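Sample 1 of the test manifest.
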Amino acid sequence: MTEAFPVDIGPQYEGDVIRKADLYVEFGGPKAKSKFELVTLNSPAEVEHGRIEVIGPDIFELEEGGSYPLAILIDVAGERLEKETEPVIERRIHMYTNYIQGLYHMNQREDAWVRLSKDAYKMGLKSLRDFGKILIFLYTSELSVIERVAITFITDEKRVQELLPHALEVYHARDERLKGLREEDVDQFYGCVLCQSFAPTHACIITPERLSLCGAINWFDGRAAYQLDPEGPIFEVPKGELLDPVKGEYSGANQVIAERSLGQYNRVYLHSAFEHPHTSCGCFQSICFYIPEVDGFGVVHRDFAGKTPIGASFSTMAGNTGGGRQAEGSLGMALEYMRSPKFLRADGGLYRVMWMPKEIKERYRDVIPENLYDKIATEENATNTDELVEFVDKVGHPWLRGEVELP
Amino acid sequence: MTTAIAIAGKGGVGKTIIAALLIDLLSQKGIVLAVDADPSANLNLALGLPLEGTVGGVREEMVKDIQKQSLPTGVPMQDILQGRIRATLVESDKVDLLTMGRPEGPGCYCAANHMLRLSIGRLTRNYDYVVIDCEAGMEHISRQTAGDIDVLLTISDPTVRGITAAAAMKELIQELRTKVGGVYLMINRVKGGPPREIKEAADGLGLHLIATILEDPNLADLEVKGIPLIQLPPDSPLQLGVREIADKLKL
Ligand code: SF4
């Protein structure tokens, strides 16, 4: 099927790097000021299938060896396509371009970077139109939900710059939307056992609403890592049956914990710090710890050098929390987990938090409900439990006043 | 197929110049990825290449962006990291240079290092040769950020202390998970033939002595003038020694 194109196509070209010495021209990348790529879903009437437009100089009109601006605008239509799929289709630009012999794609969005090799140019890949034709061929043959594709390449610096703000707006809106992905929306979670060298019974369960403990791997990263290296330390966790919607207990996660903890544990609550909390490795960004005197939680992060109201510092507590154990009332976690709508849902969520370092409180100002913000103590309000009890009494912390209902 | 050669030795034994000369030699046979894994060496200067950023810098930046949650969603972090590493790569005709930079600060780097390993692994398989200039502790090898090694060349000066240090490196590497092909010893800065005691010490420690190199009289002059060291004359003892090794190891 590929004879019609000047160069060969296939996954075998994927890992090939085009070095500067072999470069004919490059678009985007660190040396080009303006570049981006954007996929937009449109109605079928608006997408003229197969249309390819080049605005600005084409490859054969450019001087060899240079770095040039580029916008790749791909319009798609398909009855079963949804707006949510735009980023996934856009990511395919990366995959498909790397399938093309002599083309090389790096980065994404406003950092996009495409290199064309001298060999490919010699073989006849001299126009962005050919690149476009191949992309359209790949899109329609690999993704049957895509019915129509049209591509516009812009190499005119001014035009690229004019359109960039719109692209940035779209990226931003997408990030916000993707941040809203819920556990209910997916069938798979991901797991990671990279920390097992220090914590042999630990496995991170990563869901759209629960980041890895180190904060470095979210659900999307887990999925990507698994697809890249299915045999690797990051693996798929079938969600299984939802056993407890409040505590976040899933049969799939239980099974994985049983396997990966070598039988040490057989249940895990993803959204509670009690009974069967998530295991803690040693890499967690922060610890959420129970303070019996106030029947609430404190949160402390790695960079906080001082002592928490319970008298221990982060590092002392980390020693008691980590190692791969399920430590009741002491949970290693990513700070960003506090943004999750399911954050310790079974225990009262953010409304159960009584203390955190000032720096963290300020950083998470936007997620802490307004009527709660002033009721959470920091190191400036309380350095021991007596002071903490006094503070939360004085301000009337909603949890202690019985104003918080558990789900 | 990529052949990976790591060159290790304590400071001052001529490790970086040997790495640079080997890179230069191998670049006549294929495309070479030079990896500067010694924060106190200046492999880029020896090769006459600029410096554009370090892998360590990329790692720190990633960790920061993760904390700020400023990375785009829907784009795998692995791909972002790969792109950033690519951007620090210094490219020249036959040799590309990757500088590892300073070791990590406090905090958790399990995930970041894992991603680094994958990224660097994907990069290295595009080259015929990978030559790594390592510091004595061989941190990047022990953390496997530099991948598996076909040849480990330990460099020593003609002192028993130097040889003992080389033997320690050999042992260190054998305890690691990294796969290593052959381990060899090269003694640099020898005046006349290699002293018998040194040879015996190497034998006693189970080191395979592959070459000895005479003190190079041309080196000081280049260093004074700030000329890239790979411009040593072809009949210089160091050049001859490096060629001898390449021949013996069939590189
Ligand atoms: S903390 Fe991070 S590196 Fe460690 S197991 Fe969890 S996801 Fe993996």
